[in-house]
Design a protein that fits this description.
The protein has about 220 residues and is mostly helical. The chain is built from nine helices and no strands. The longest helix has about 35 residues.
């Protein structure tokens, strides 16, 4: 009796409500960062994190920012998809690639639509060419690393730890963009929020389709 109670899963309705609440929270954070960007709080955090005149911090920030380079992450996503295909999980690899590419694309659409100007309080420590909101590095790193972590640890007891590590890496990458002077903190937070929201929406749908396909294949066989 005790063992059954310990293994009992939350009711599906409660899980659904939690999912909806998380989506609404992330959307609200994105909207708040869009509206409040460039204000006094944004400026104060920007100045506190800026790494100018600190060579060691600049080097660390540049190394971290390379791990979130959107073009590099697209290549890493393609390689990961090929590896999953080779391992017999081709559909999951395709889902990873699709989620990464669409997340990146939607991030760029937001940049051109919103057209927020980059901060100019301090000299930029890396070259940038596009608009500011949301941060492409924050968005792309959250989408790729979190999706990869969840895909590779499906049905594993390490899934929570893997997801937490992916989120931490994205947080470091996003913070490096403020340290390098090329983004407002709100740009980065908005990118994180959108990236996580996109993963929650698309990966859940993809996993549902993959389960349906697997069930159909077993029935056919």
């Amino acid at each position: 009796m005790v063992e059954r109670g310990m293994n009992r899963q939350p009711p599906p309705r409660r899980v659904q409500l939690r999912f909806i609440a998380a989506i609404l929270l992330l959307a609200g954070i994105w909207l708040a960062m869009l509206v409040a960007g460039g204000g006094a709080t944004d400026r104060a955090i920007y100045e506190a994190l800026y790494a100018g005149h600190r060579p060691v911090m600049i080097a660390i920030a540049r190394a971290l920012t390379e791990l979130g380079e959107p073009t590099m992450l697209i290549g890493a996503s393609a390689l990961s998809a090929l590896w999953l295909w080779y391992a017999g999980r081709g559909r999951l690899g395709l889902a990873l690639l699709a989620i990464t590419l669409t997340g990146r694309g939607l991030g760029e659409v937001q940049k051109y639509w919103i057209a927020r100007v980059r901060p100019d309080l301090e000299p930029h420590l890396v070259v940038v060419k596009t608009s500011s909101f949301p941060s492409g590095h924050a968005t792309s790193s959250m989408v790729f690393y979190l999706t990869l972590a969840l895909v590779l640890t499906a049905h594993s007891r390490w899934r929570f730890a893997a997801a937490g590590s992916a989120i931490l890496l994205s947080l470091l990458i996003g913070t490096s963009r403020v340290m390098l002077g090329v983004h407002w903190p709100s740009d980065v937070i908005g990118g994180w929020a959108f990236g996580m929201l996109w993963v929650m929406l698309t990966l859940r749908a993809a996993e549902g389709l993959l389960r349906t396909d697997s069930a159909m294949e077993k029935t056919t066989l």
